[in-house]
Protein 1
Amino acid sequence: MVLEIKNLTKKYNRHKTGLEDYSITLENGILGLLGPNGAGKSTLMKIISTISKPTQGTLFLDGVDIVKSPGHIRKILGYLPQDFGVYPNLNAYEFLSYIAAMKGVGGKGLNQRIELLLEGVNLMADAKRPIGTYSGGMKQRIGIAQALLNDPKVLIFDEPTVGLDPEERVRFRQLISDLADNCIIILSSHIVSDIETIADEVAVMQGGKLITKGSQPDIIKYAENKVFEVLIAPASLPAFKSKYRVIDTARQIDQVRVRYISDLNAIAPSSAPVKVGLEDAYLFLTQNNP
Ligand SMILES: Nc1ncnc2c1ncn2[C@@H]1O[C@H](COP(=O)(O)OP(=O)(O)OP(=O)(O)O)[C@@H](O)[C@H]1O
């Protein structure tokens, strides 16, 4: 499948723009959306899910205009919104059966599919108690399961790992990695490491705009030779922070190890370059595009 998004703009009102002239082309595989609060990640996901209409721009899925024909994507869409709500009195079976009915998914295999999904998100043991008694992470997992009910070909997860413990994060990754060959999967996260372990490609967004999209090695290249480490006295840290863009600090016995972004010709004395990762590149890119 190919999803072609061109010159997408979403204006909520005269003062609020969610997306501005946003163009991106997606094919099967996992795209990680990274961006600070207000970058436009949810706005983009809502427009692709046809929950929200763009002010301008086009979205074509395999050549079909999904703004004009939303039904074309809805029947193959799985969507976990950021503010996913549940019916607290229903148990997991009942809830998934209800969502299946809403999506027009039925047939003989439905119960088996529901069980498979409940196993996939590790909720089998709790499937018969009301969802209202679930923890936040368990509710999130039922949200993940409902998105997968209709065997989707376009899967959109807005902050899917919120509330999941490390073990459940791994389980989530496994669940969606298996689908990525035949599916366009888009997921947003504030946790760079979640995207890092799973995404084939990464799109970095800020202020409603796409800063860049590419494979992880391509994105990481932006920060090469731009990130350094130095040991300084704790008392010098405030002055250091006012001069450099500090990414991270780690307290040593009587010093602080500071990781920071700088041009090579402006680094602090005794600094050493570091091997950069996706988080460094993300911070570098969003810092340079205020
Ligand atoms: N319904 C709305 N009405 C007015 N402005 C909105 C609305 N929804 C989003 N916005 C604004 O659009 C911009 C993009 O918001 P969006 O929720 O898409 O960002 P985000 O990247 O998903 O952020 P977060 O990570 O905080 O969820 C923000 O400035 C936000 O305040």
Note: The first helix runs from residue 41 to 48.
Protein 2
Amino acid sequence: MQEIIRTESLTKRYGDYSVLQDISLNVYRGEIYGFLGLNGAGKTTTIRMLLGMIAPTSGEAHINGQRVLGAKPQLWQQVGYMVETPYAYPNFTVRENLRLIAKLRGLPEKQSTEAVMDRLQLARYADTKAKNLSLGNAQKLGLAKAMIHNPSVLILDEPTNALDPAGIVQIRELLRHLAKEEGVTVFISSHILEEMSKLASRIGIIHGGTLLQEISSQQFEQLRRKRLTVKVREKGELAIELLRQAGYATQLADEGRIEVTDESAIRQPERIAKLLVGADLPLAELTVNEEGLESYFLQRVSQ
Ligand SMILES: Nc1ncnc2c1ncn2[C@@H]1O[C@H](COP(=O)(O)OP(=O)(O)OP(=O)(O)O)[C@@H](O)[C@H]1O
């Protein structure tokens, strides 16, 4: 496997305040590496160092085998990035903004602009001034700028932040396609656990400036605690008794809800429904809940 991104003990301090400690990670060609952490965990700081925008206090970052600090300008022809809220010239249209970037990058202006607008489904906003775009479309314009030169490495800081659900699915599919079909390496940060487990092939979890854990997305899915919540219209005690007798690990939660944590119940909730309805205990609610990022961290950090 070809190593594309490598950090060695990246550390950043501002005065006495330590933002990042000893971050060492590797990302391989065609991988989508999800960098997952709560707000303030240190994601943006890491990404800024990956891009050479700020210098580490100690440690190093490498892309394509080159040390980022002091890298030759050619390195940046292979890298596309979007960090925090993307900037665009407000009085230029989407097309004008992109043509400007194409020109600065020495690309065929018309062809690369139209191609990237198509890719991100931005063509119908081509003549809209950047200042009149919705937040989601402004974000897409930022992504278009990051991708216009067809880079082989994409580094994206919370790229789906302002997008609506349809936009999130679209970007997810585009990134998956780029990684799988074109071998593009994607490093993407987010604080949304759900999104990461759907998109990334590997996930690095950062908390308080430390890389806590690196796992595959499949492992991550298995580690997340899931539970089935049931509520019956009445006779909650009886329902609990019945479920326990049937061998399910069951406990009473808020507002008369019953939580079932067995794998088999989570995989086949219809069995629970059948059991209760069959005993004349009609259901008011039946849901599978997945643990959120905060509680996953709390559990992980307190171990
Ligand atoms: N220039 C700076 N001077 C001092 N502290 C800073 C500086 N830049 C960032 N920090 C602090 O470093 C910590 C990590 O910030 P960072 O922006 O990297 O987090 P993040 O994980 O990207 O969070 P968010 O999702 O909120 O952007 C925060 O506590 C932040 O206040």
Note: Residues 14, 17, 19, 37, 39-45, 191 surround adenosine-5'-triphosphate (CB under 6 Å).
